[in-house]
Hints:
- The chain is mostly beta strands.
- It has one helix spanning 101-106; strands spanning 3-7, 10-13, 18-25, 33-40, 47-53, 58-60, 68-73, 78-83, 92-100, 113-114, 118-123.
- A hairpin with a 6-residue loop joins strand 4 (33-40) and strand 5 (47-53).
- The longest helix is centred in the C-terminal third of the chain and has 6 residues, at 101-106.
- 32% of the residues are buried.
Amino acid sequence: QVQLMESGGGSVQAGGSLRLSCVVSGYTWSSGSCVGWFRQAPGQEREGVATIDSDGNPSYADSAKGRFTISKDNAENTVDLQLSSLKPEDTAMYYCAADLCWRLVQGAEEVRDWGQGTQVTVSS
């Protein structure tokens, strides 16, 4: 059974940084598999932020490019998301997700395994 546990959220001012971490257990990093981060603001749909595949190749949403960095640590079984140059519009619940890469690319409705989420709040 796949288990995902996020941590690292908090409240920061605009321009600040946070590092989110997802502990991944019970998941097989086979070819074509990914772990990613999504976010959901109040009243909005859950959207993809970044994914990383079994070979460590990252992919980013346009809103994340140049500001966020996703990475994986095989020894620690973690996937981290470094958030930099944060903006108020980045305020959301951030969720870790694990599934086949094509499912993460298709969108939240296709993803089968989720963590509980960690809140990020950015004030202006």
